[in-house]
Structure formats: structure tokens, C-alpha cells
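[step 3/7] fold_predict: job queued, chain A
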Amino acid sequence: MQTKGRIAIIHPHTTLRISLKDLIQCEAGYRIVFESDHPAISVDDLLSTASDIIITDGASLQAITQLTSLCSDQHVRNMPILVLSPSDEMVDIKSAFRMGAKGYIPLDQVALELIDAIGCLIAGQLYIGNALQTTLPSAIIQEILS
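[step 4/7] structure written:
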């Protein structure tokens, strides 16, 4: 079977990481190539995984800040970051995208949207959760995505 995408999961909550792995591995072609419960990882760690996408915690500013710092490295820069967050507040969504995220899903929508979001990010597109698209003004969505 051809691999559609190699995924790194960096999230402090074990139960959520297990659930994410289960959801992803049910989808043919996606592989988990790296898993960590702590955001303080090195460029070498990420490069050694040959990840296509990074999924991380959006509740922790430390996680996003660390990954943004990593992604400023020229070798890691093109790895899209998908943020999973308990917040659906516009300020948090904008902040995640400003820090380098390419996708954002509220935690209560992960089971419904995770595979679609991964596919979009691997294809080079940005992703904002469907539920957010129905509640945020379209001008705000365009601002975030541009």
C-alpha cells in the first residue's frame, strides 16, 4: 500500500494521542512516524522522521511556540502544523496561524474533521474546521487564510 502521508503527533495528553493514532491508522495510507508527549523536540528529531505533517496541542502556547521556532529552520519550514485546540475563539485561531499553523480544528470536532484536515495540509492547502467556518464571519476566515 502506498503511503499518503507520514504524520508526527506531539501532544501532552496520552488518551488523545492514542485516539488520534486510532483515527489516522484506520485511514488507508497514513502512517504515524513520530510521537511525543512534549513539545521540546529538536530539528534533528523531526528531520529523522521524514514527517509530512505535525499535529500538535493548541492549548499550550509552549507547544505552538516551540514548533514555530522549529519551523523557522529551513529544513523543517515546509512541514505543515495542524493545531488541535479546545478553543474556538477568533483570537486563538488567528494567533495559531500567525505562529505558523496551517490548520486548526477545535477538539470537539477532531473525530469528524481530522482526516480531511490532514489531506488538505498534505496537499498544500490551509484548513479551518468546518464548524468554525459556519460560525466565523467569512471576512475573518479570508483574513486568516490569506
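[step 5/7] annotate
Residues 5-145 form a domain with the Rossmann fold fold (CATH 3.40.50.2300).
The helical segments are 14-26, 43-49, 61-71, 90-98, 110-122, 130-135, 138-145.
exit 0
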